[in-house]
Amino acid sequence: MSAVIVLLLFAGLSEAAGRILPLVARRPGMSRTFVAGLLLAAGLVEGAVFALWPLTAWTLAELTLSATPSGDGPAWTPSLLAPLLLSAVLAFPLLGPLLHLLLLVGVGAGLAGPLAAATGLGWWGAAGCVAVGGAGLGLAVEAVRRLVVRISATAAPERIA
Q: What is the pLDDT of residue 149?
């Protein structure tokens, strides 16, 4: 379990770095402590989103079934998280967003197998639940991200000491 938490945190930090470092490059006046705090907070949020992905897919599968599935939903394992960590590393905008998307699709396909086995939904139905769950979480985080950028753009610029 601790390996899964560490991998989720690394994937979240890497994903956040891919989003924050281009912002830092465009705004050279940002202090290092502010950037480190922003990176840590964003990394925790991204890690939480990755952790919620199987739970969201499980919830969607329960909603599509007429009978409640028995047993526990799919959970992250180190073998499922390793490609997710690789896709987060490749999330840097200039290193290949298409490859990043392809790896996320591969991780989602890996999640669909255990979800299909746990719910009896069928692989394509489980893959649809994983895709909708991942897209919904991604859209929610993007909306919050844009709101934070809009709020921080109205704040007074930070002075460098």
A: 75
pLDDT tens per residue across span 135-160: 998 888 888 878 877 887 665 566 66
CA–CA dist 122, 120 (Å, integer):
6
- 116-155: string of b/e by CB count within 10 Å (b at 16+)? bebbebeeebbbbbbbebbeebeeebeeeeeeeeeeeeee
At 37, list the tokens.
């705090």
State which H helix or E strand residue 21 sits in. Answer: helix 2-26
The structure tokens listed for 115 are 């979800």
Predicted model pTM: 0.74
Nearest residue to 87 via CA among 20, 23, 8: 8
